[in-house]
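Provenance

Sequences were taken from public entries as deposited. Structures were produced by running a predictor on each sequence independently, with no templates supplied. The record for Developmentally regulated GTP binding protein 2 from Pundamilia nyererei is shown for reference.
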Amino acid sequence: MMLDATKGDVQRALLEKELESVGIRLNRIKPNIYFKPKKGGGLSFNSTVPLTQCSEKLVQLILHEYKIFNAEVLFREDCTPDEFIDVIVGNRVYMPCLYVYNKVDQISIEEVDRLARRPHSVVISCGMKLNLDYLLERLWEYLALICIYTKKRGERPDFNDAIIMRRGASVEHVCHRIHRTLASQFKYALVWGTSTKYSPQRVGLTHIMEHEDVIQIVKK
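Predicted structure for Developmentally regulated GTP binding protein 2:
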């Protein structure tokens, strides 16, 4: 979310309010509540943790507001009534958000320090090209992206042409990204990088790749 540092917290508050009203929850995870409507049997309510913000009576009242009289509810964490309502509605979107404050060259150093210390925030100046490298690092982190380099046998890795993958991608995903038939011809792969115990390590299709790993694929 790109924000104007000269406008303080007003712009951020307005945008967050708009997104909240349409069901987008920023930098929050989905409440760990099991909820399943039933055809009969009334309310079955349980919790695996002590609840300080919701009770069985309150849950029942909320369900009645939504014309739900028979359901299974299991709280696996201490959630608020609003979070329980989000689970009932079921169409909320939970996503990470990075607040990027631009034009920090136009505000005081004290204000820059205050904004930079806020959670999920980065301060930059596009005009003066300040802190853009750090912004790029944080974007990779929030988008959960990794880059993987390929290597041909007997040659050096090609560090100018990386394959961009989601964090958690396996060797099989890399094969599909290179060519759709490569996985069926796969014999083994040699991997250099932080995902291995030693370099190079011979791995199979299920091996999970990490950022800036180098891979050499050997076909049958």
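Helices lie at 10-21, 56-65, 81-89, 109-116, 132-143, 171-178.
The CA atoms of residues 175 and 182 lie 6 Å apart.
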